[in-house]
Amino acid sequence: MTSVQTQPAAAETTKPGPLLAVADLAVSFATADGNVQAVDGLSLTIHPRQTFALVGESGCGKSVTALAILQLIPQPPGRIERGSILLDGRDLLRLSEKQMLKVRGKDIAMIFQEPTTSLNPVYTVGDQIVEAILLHQDVNNKEAAEIAIAAMHEVGIPNPKQRLRAYPHQFSGGMRQRVMIAMALACQPKLLLADEPTTALDVTIQAQILELLKKLKRERGMAVMLITHDLGVVAENADVVCVMYAGRVVEYANVFDLFAKSHHPYTRGLLASIPKLGETKHRLTTVDTVVNDPQEYKKLPEYHKGVVPWWPTLPPPDDVAPSSGGDAYVLHEIAPNHWVGCWRTAYVAQHPSPRPDIAFRRDARPGVAR
Ligand SMILES: Nc1ncnc2c1ncn2[C@@H]1O[C@H](COP(=O)(O)OP(=O)(O)OP(=O)(O)O)[C@@H](O)[C@H]1O
Ligand SMILES: [Mg+2]
Prior knowledge:
By secondary structure, the chain is of the alpha/beta class. The protein has 14 helices and 12 strands. The chain has helices at about 60-70, 95-105, 115-120, 125-135, 140-155, 160-165, 175-185, 205-220, 230-235, 255-260, 265-270, 285-290, 295, 345-350; strands at about 20-30, 35-45, 50-55, 80-85, 90, 110, 190-195, 225, 240-245, 250-255, 330-335, 340-345.
């Protein structure tokens, strides 16, 4: 894996290697309408204790990325076309299903976007948590039940002992979400993939769940991949942000750089489209108004040298030089630790960038209480 060179002043100084390193991942689905390229050349790293946010519009490939990490892509119709997914240096794409069973839940757990995916309505909540524990830990039924009660208590479910015997439909939406988190956390994973964990919840419960994740992260040293389209949640919680569009990374930076110095017009469009308190506008800025404005592309540093942000609906620059694999897109490090999806122009081809890898954590900044 490529290493981080110069960290921003605020970043952590002692950098262990990444916990997860995804390189050039491509996933497609064969559908009646043809091939859908869900993820196309995605690279990212997640470091221990980091909150890594994956953002982008519906259908851009966020869930597929998470499912690919856990090897849960249905094949067929899905196909992992290329790439590697290293967990502590071990390529998950090369593991057998039997080996993956040990990774799922134990090393990496997931809170699914669809709660129905993880909770079976015909079994009690307790049975389901206990089963997950028995699968991964060398304990008996009684000990597993105790761990389950402790996990439910930890996520703030009142009367966990009694609630163990309840069925999923007897829980409110927020409590069901907590059950899912309890189930995911009962085995103490190193990495939690949280796919829109709060979208279906009201803001108060949403804040409670995010606080809970923060607490667990702090206490257990777990890393979190937070999939969301809520930029407010990103601003409050993320260390590193990866913005995706049409299966590709368009921007990748630490959370402060991304919000203060966004370089890709799509990211600027996303940020500009959030209504701000106290601002009177006759019309909301939409993402489209920004990405369709040619002037926005010229704002990129080194544009004059031939570095142009990539965008699928725009014609490529004249000197685009596709790679031997035919790819005209590349992730370019436009500033230290700040990557932008660019056209592979002659200049970009001559100045290759390392793959994105940022060890930054906001709580590791000097003077910030952990
Ligand atoms: N099982 C499948 N069969 C066919 N196409 C699929 C399948 N799963 C995902 N896709 C396609 O892959 C693309 C990426 O989907 P994905 O679920 O990752 O989007 P997402 O970014 O998670 O969106 P959302 O914010 O709506 O959850 C979409 O075009 C989707 O239609
Ligand atoms: Mg999704």
